[in-house]
Amino acid sequence: MADFHQQDLAGSRFEQVHLQRATFHQVRLNDAVFNDVDLTGAQFREAFFKDAVMRGVALQNVRIEGELEGVTVNGVDIGPLVQAELERREPDLAKMRPTDPDGFREAWDLLERLWSGAVERARALPEAALHESVDGEWSFVETLRHLSFATECWLLRAILGDPRPWAPLSLPWDQMPDTEGVPRDRAAQPSLDEALALRLDRQAAVRRYLATLDDATLASDTVPVDGPGWPEPRSYPVRECLLTLLNEEWWHRQFALRDLAVLEARFMERRRS
Prior knowledge:
CATH superfamily of the largest domain: dinb family like domain
Shape: globular
Strand order of the largest sheet: 1-2
Number of strands: 2
Largest sheet: 2 strands, antiparallel
Structural class: mainly alpha
CATH class of the largest domain: Mainly Alpha
Distance between the termini: 39 Å
């Protein structure tokens, strides 16, 4: 087994090569060509397929979770079809695309209620289970830490102008490069209540901001913040920042509920054994 680390293999040709069980991490495959390849059992996480073209492919028992924009399958743009079905299953999802300040306030109130229910469901499990990963995803506690980070980035930094708003327990996404002043302690094991204390503080910050949001502010752009971090120090539409927050809150709750179901089944199995 060979290891390739920080090597430039651009333009290389692989023919009749076996790469079963290979791991690609932070690898750039821009404009790569795959011809007559077998991807059975392959897993893609945090992959970016912009302008990708797949012809003559066979997709069988394939599961895709992510953002679909301009994705055409056999001549049909499937993004709107998927969105319509998601909103049929979860009518509240449509409220995550508000167009005015009242809509944002309504969406945030809804998210706080939904998350309150998710937390109560999590409390029924042993504390240790809330640190368990399901299929390599974040634990429940890590999810709460990441949502605190998202609020710090898109509200406290991008909109309110704090260049370094991050708490020590906040958790960026795994692929974010090490950045001065940005915490990334994946090994931390705070209790649910410790993670919630930070989470509730950040939720309250959003609630306070939305309480005074008006049409003019919603239509404006942010003032670029100084200093390294995320998002990058440039101007952003306020509406875009707030929509990003709603999107993070909605989908991470969906993921958390999916994984809680697995954790609950594990817990019941352990009790029976």
